[in-house]
Amino acid sequence: MPIYEYVCPKCKTRFEDIRSTSKADEEALCPECKTPSARGVSGFACRGTGSCGSGGGSCSSGSCSSCSGCH
């Protein structure tokens, strides 16, 4: 089963959950504060796009112009 990353809207905790793809978009409970949390965009999903974006992922080269604080 795939591992999905979630971000808590209340305490900003990032956590992972292993679940089937059919349940990937369902909210997961934050392990810290038990708030329902939406799925985030993992760094792995961002690699190879050439841009880090605002999610804090990694660019493939480490030198893209949008990476103000990536590396």
UniProtKB/TrEMBL annotation:
Biased composition (Low complexity): 60-71
Disordered: annotated span: 50-71
Domain Putative regulatory protein FmdB zinc ribbon, residue spans: 1-42
SMART domains per the UniProt record, alphabetical: CxxC_CXXC_SSSS
Classification via Pfam families: Zn_ribbon_8
Residue ranges with Gly residues bias: 50-59
The protein, known as: Putative regulatory protein FmdB zinc ribbon domain-containing protein
Species: Dehalococcoides mccartyi (strain CBDB1)
